[in-house]
Write a structure and sequence with these properties.
The chain has 373 residues and is mainly alpha-helical. The protein contains 17 helices and five strands. Helix 3 (34-53) packs across helix 5, helix 8 (164-179) runs antiparallel to helix 10 (229-239) and helix 15 packs across helix 16 (346-352).
Amino acid sequence: MVDSSRQGVSSREKTIEQALAEFTESRSKGKLPGNYAIEVDRVVGNWAQWCEKQGVSKIGAVDAWLLRKWIQHLRHRVNNEKITGQTAHQYFALVRAFLSYCEEWEWIAVNPADQDRVSNELPDESRGDGTKPQTWSESERTQLLRFVDARAHEAIDQNGSDAVTQCRDRALVYLLAFTGARCAELVHDSNDDRRRGIYWGDIDYESRTITVLGKDQQREEVQFPEIAHSAVQRYETVLEPPTDDWPVFPTSHAPSLYKTARETITDDLDGRDAMTVLQETETPPPSISTTAVRNILKTLCEEGNIDVEGDHEYLKPHGARRGLGKQLYKDSAFEYAQKALRHSDPETTSEMYADIEAGEVAEVTDDVFEDGV
């Protein structure tokens, strides 16, 4: 018989959030390392938020069909190279452990994650591990920056203030290359409605920071070095955003613009350009999406004949973040790489660049003994 005082509320009324709070507390009391509780809180917490979006907030309503839908969501993330198959399995294992705890306390009749028909839906654990995660090399970054510079300057010379697209692409590449921001922090993530991208009011040239919605759903400041200022300022000049509450990278997708415009005014647009209507009413349009960014980078690499290293088809957004961290790690100090990438755990940074440690130690040793022994 389950202790009613432990349950607090009936299983029909207990929310996923309440159950998770008790599970995290139980696992942090000396049974397992605190880092495990933190990871559970993050992963299962994100799962709980996803459930909420599906209209499920009570633990008793979690069933195999809901988990199947969540696994489809994980498969989508694996297919879009946001996580690996192994990571998807790790996330599922944490949720399964949480649901086992709920079953133990009879908040659910059975653990749906223990059913083979559910776990069999998981993506191949090796997915995403066939190639080494891409890291922009100095050569790749330099080639791409030179191309977007030349492309934007040529467009400005020919079209003046109409060179919005070329200036946008240049600013985007500079922010990816030098801020360490995640793509989903700069633009809209179609898998998360809270991630709407950055707005002009988020950029502070004086303090050299950009405020973003971080990985843990908290507002954070990312570095905005002066090397990226010129590209962003020139883009802002040609874009002429009507307000600080305007996305830095607004979409040009006509259906999305017209939808937003129609939601703003009740009468017909009378053939007027949707973007013009939005500018006149100072109504922010949606930001471009992470998918659009990948398409932009793919096009730039093709048009610029960028020599992409390894088995990768083009320079992907997250490779820019890894490339920045790697160069900071090698050329300055570990602490700068950790701060630029905003890793809360130093071991995350160290593990990410463990492959260069031995070589770097060798170089330092050569420098120390360059005069012989």
